[in-house]
Design brief:
Blueprint (H helix, E strand, L loop, with lengths): L7 H9 L2 H7 L22 E8 L20 H19 L6 E3 L3 E3 L2 H6 L7 E6 L4 H7 L5 E6 L8 H5 L24 E3 L2 H7 L1
Parallel strand pairs: 1-2, 1-3, 1-4, 4-5, 5-6
Length: 202
């Protein structure tokens, strides 16, 4: 060898014994799943507290008068079943990832007294499920401070009376900004049947 130059064979022999190569041959201490591009990002923030409220009213027979509204929730038994369906659907949505959700127990409200006792404290968003009931009860359950979404059923379960009855009498028009004297929620805050759309609104 001239001028201290090393042959390729010498380079490979000496290089194989060098600490750099030795370290590169040691097993990696990094977990194999440290980076998975398909995995959703972990959200370290506080969970969004979701308060589901089922609004309904049990009809009472009145002689010589119309006494029964239409819709699929017309009894206490039907209301219990619908509350269980709501809880199951929301819990399934909470497992999809993205924003962490804390789903509170479903509150069943069938009258003004129960509505007045409902508290918004500690709640980030109220999801109102108006199956049956009066317009006054609907207005009482629209949150005054917390964010709100209205979910109505047409085909995803027992049809809701308010699927058809909701209107700008109770909600702001599309594109109309909030203002004093106007309803708190807009027609754009209504979701029909679609759980994925509900999750997007939360």
């Amino acid at each position: 060898m001239c001028c201290g130059a090393a042959s390729r064979r010498d380079f490979l022999r000496f290089g194989a014994a060098s600490p750099l190569v030795t370290l590169s041959q040691e097993p990696s201490s990094w977990p194999a799943d440290l980076w998975q591009p398909e995995r959703a990002f972990r959200n370290a923030g506080l969970p969004l507290r979701v308060q589901p409220v089922l609004m309904y009213q049990i009809p009472k027979r009145r002689e010589a008068a119309s006494w029964k509204s239409w819709g699929g929730v017309q009894s206490e038994e039907a209301a219990v079943q619908e509350a269980a369906r709501i809880a199951e659907e929301l819990n399934a949505l909470s497992l999809r990832g993205g924003v962490p959700l804390e789903i509170l127990p479903v509150t069943r409200v069938s009258g003004a007294e129960a509505a007045s006792q409902l508290r918004e404290a500690g709640t980030d968003v109220r999801v109102l499920y108006p199956a049956t009931g009066s317009g006054e009860l609907l207005r009482a359950l629209i949150p005054a401070r917390a964010y709100g979404v209205i979910f109505v059923r047409r085909r995803s379960g027992p049809i809701y009376y308010w699927y058809e009855a909701l209107s700008t009498r109770y909600l702001r028009k599309r594109g109309q900004p909030p203002a004093p004297g106007l309803p708190r929620l807009s027609v754009e805050d209504v979701v029909v049947d679609d759980g994925s759309e509900l999750l997007r609104r939360l």
